[in-house]
């Protein structure tokens, strides 16, 4: 369990680093024409960090064979992701701000993580 917490800390640290240096990395790799894409790099990293934390915790849940609440939390998070007006789909990104779309993704992945209880 201690290694899981170390993984959580490392994932959050790496997401924080991407908030700081993501725009610079995009500007260096893709050029100034794509500099605006750097504004969402941190939110993408945070969403994936929470998704990775969720997957780490689910291993304990599967091992304990208490998957009933896991399926409920997964379905609930999917419903919340669809009910929130800003989604990751290209249709909504065209109408809404990309940054808000990635914040929603991060929020949904955080809900995935917080809605399950490990052993």
Q: Mind explaining what this structure looks like?
A:
With 119 residues, the chain is mostly helical. Helices cover 77% and strands 0% of the residues. It has five helices and no strands. About 5% of the residues have low confidence.
Helix content: over 70%
User: How many structurally independent domains?
Assistant: 1
**What's the overall average pLDDT, rounded?**
77
* Helix and strand pattern: HHHHH
Work out the radius of gyration: 16 Å
Q: Biggest sheet, in brief?
A: none
Count of helices? Answer: 5
Alpha-beta classification: mainly alpha
Q: What is the overall silhouette?
A: flat
Strand content: under 5%
User: Which regions have little confidence, pLDDT < 50, spanning 5+ residues?
Assistant: 87-92
Number of strands: 0
> What separation lies between the terminal Cα atoms?
10 Å
Q: What structural keywords apply?
A:
119 residues; mainly alpha; 5 helices; 77% helix
Architecture blueprint of SSEs:
Layout: H1 2-30, H2 41-64, H3 68-83, H4 90-95, H5 98-114
Helix pairs in contact: 1-2, 2-5, 3-5
């Amino acid at each position: 369990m201690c290694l899981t917490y170390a993984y959580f800390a490392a994932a959050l640290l790496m997401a924080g680093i991407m908030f700081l240096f993501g725009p610079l990395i995009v500007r260096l790799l893709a050029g100034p024409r794509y500099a605006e894409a750097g504004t969402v790099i941190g939110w993408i990293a945070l969403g994936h960090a929470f998704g990775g934390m969720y997957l780490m915790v689910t291993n304990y849940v599967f091992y304990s064979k208490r998957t009933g609440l896991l399926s409920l939390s997964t379905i609930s998070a999917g419903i919340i992701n669809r009910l929130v007006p800003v989604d990751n789909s290209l249709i909504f990104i065209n109408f809404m701000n990309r940054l808000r779309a990635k914040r929603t993704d991060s929020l949904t992945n955080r809900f995935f993580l917080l809605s399950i209880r490990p052993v």
